Amino acid sequence: MGKESGTTGPVADTIAAAPTEQDAALKLLVVLSKAYKTVMDKAVKDMKQRGLSPSEFTILELLYNKGRVPLQQIGQKILVTSGSVTYNIDKLEGKSLIRRVPSPDDRRVVFAELTDQGLALLRRIFPEHAAAVQAIMAGLGYEEQLQATKLLKQLGKTAEQP
Amino acid sequence: MGKESGTTGPVADTIAAAPTEQDAALKLLVVLSKAYKTVMDKAVKDMKQRGLSPSEFTILELLYNKGRVPLQQIGQKILVTSGSVTYNIDKLEGKSLIRRVPSPDDRRVVFAELTDQGLALLRRIFPEHAAAVQAIMAGLGYEEQLQATKLLKQLGKTAEQP
DNA sequence: TTTAAAAATCTTAAATTTAAGATATATCAT
DNA sequence: ATGATATATCTTAAATTTAAGATTTTTAAA
Fold first, then answer.
1. CATH class held by domain A21-44+52-155
2. Which portions of this protein are annotated as coiled-coil regions (chains A, B) (predicted)?
């Protein structure tokens, strides 16, 4: 038996040779998953301490940055289904952190926007959260973070398959 | 009003200056999330076409690569809770793709291992899936994939906070 | 040995997400 | 205007995940 070779499969029993193209892709998927979950676990812990689920927090953050946003765009931005948007917007509205505002131009459209209370909350919470995220990402130096961002952006941009 | 500046926040109204350290960290989190979800969406689509949920598939893949694995280690490897492991192992056992094997050494421990049927399935499915993953990751070239893997591994390795 | 603490699996209920379809409105070509 | 198609939100049920705690077994100390 050869030495451990990560998640590369029953084949890879060579001595630290360069991975094949396919192995590189498979390994990237594994590492991406693990990094995402590890990082998210910590970020989520920070969010929950503030009484918000990750989806709730992400929506609030979006509204904080963008102002008034149609529900549909929220789903597109944070990549969840319309059902999930409705569910979370309901919860946030129940907490009086956001409000629904019907569009005057298009009666199908409903905007979400922060209430004064929601804005006040974010003004207080966001800097703390940002500091927490900074700490979470400290495994990479500044330049490495920029590099990772560039690569991940490129990876995420792969054309949608219709 | 300044030009669009991504998700950097209400502050960033400078002209494409270098992001602050905190902005770099926040942006990395956003880009990591999006890349993960975009990539996973496609990988999951591939898995579901084969009648398996992502968790089921990931567990099968793990057993395919590692052989007999204690349930607890499965949870650690794929980063889900023990409840989720039980749920998915039950489903896979129901499909006769894996079987539970009690450890002879430690009666608390239960191994999961592929059945002949499960092994046959993976031998057929895995190469196709690997090809799909390769296509999904094609947004990055080979060297870029290695680089991304290195960075993500480093990022995911941040020490656990007790 | 008895006890205390740790570890592994499972159970249960609640939380969350998705998938599919329903409804209302808008757009566009007739 | 009419009708067809597309879009936006919501509803519902099912699937999945988590959180918390129960049970069993192991380990180590007294």
1. mainly alpha
2. none
Interface test with A, best of B45, B57, B79, B137 (most A CBs within 10 A): B137
Dist. CA B78–CA A143, nearest whole Å? 29
Structural domain boundaries in chain A: 21-44+52-155
Dihedral angle at the C-alpha atoms of A36, A38, B148, B130, nearest 10 degrees?
A: -70
SS3 A113: strand
Positive or negative torsion for Cα A13, A26, B33, B49: negative
Contact in structure between B92 and B98 (CB atoms under 8 Å): yes
**What is the count of residue pairs from A and B with beta carbons less than 8 Å apart?**
184
- pLDDT per residue as tens digits for the range A60-81: 999 999 999 999 999 999 999 9
B153–chain A nearest CA distance, Å: 6
> Which one is the CATH code of B48-153: 2.60.40.10, 1.10.1040.10, 1.10.10.10, 1.10.287.70?
1.10.10.10
Name the closest nucleotide to B88, judged by C1' and CA: D16
Go through chain B and tell me how many residues it has.
Answer: 162
**pLDDT tens-digit series, residues B60-97:** 999 999 999 999 999 999 999 999 999 999 999 999 99
CA distance B15 to chain A (A): 18
**Cβ of A49: how many Cβ atoms within 10 Å?**
12
Mark yes or no for CB contact B155/A137 under 8 Å: yes
